[in-house]
Amino acid sequence: MKFWLATANPERAEQFFAYGVFEGVITNPHVVAQESRNPKEIFADLCKIAPYAYYQLHAGEVRDMLREADEMLAIDPDKMRIKVPATRNGLSVIRQLSQQGLPIMATAVPTSTWMVFAVAAGAVAIAPYSGMLQKRNILSKMEGVFAMQEIIDVQGYDVEICTGIYDATEIAVYAANGIRSGFIWEKDVESYLTQGLVDEAAANFEGDWKQIDAY
Question: Lower Cβ count inside 10 Å, N or C end of the chain?
Fold first, then answer.
């Protein structure tokens, strides 16, 4: 399972990429706005640190979304990745960008049906918003994600779901159900990557190391 770091803060990104578990950076407008800087400057810095960096387009007119995509991709064509809200106009943008050979992630995808539309438009990655269904007491977030993965498997789609991880215990459950990618919020990284049992096991050898170091 691949992990993405959900942050737009270059300093924190540099700190957390040192842990060696992250594929790249993934952002949304909220985390970008928190930085209070020009997005182009933010992503220029992120591309110096991360192998890949996802930027989410405004949901608007097709021509405006395509222009925004071109401007952001120009920052670093090899590292920049584009997330497109799967509105009706967004589906058109996904089609046009994917026809350029770009690997596009569809975001704000609440249902399995909408995932099928996004894949038909050319998306190769899906950011599920099944939490919207959970808030409306329709379906749990995990059930929504698993339903999408089941369709991917049955149809043989070359598509990857990238789901948000909201508790470290979710990781093994998602992995066991075929989910190949997830993102971890910046605020959760240190707690998720700290496991008391591991630290305890490592500490059990301290006496042995002291004896070894004495020679």
Answer: C
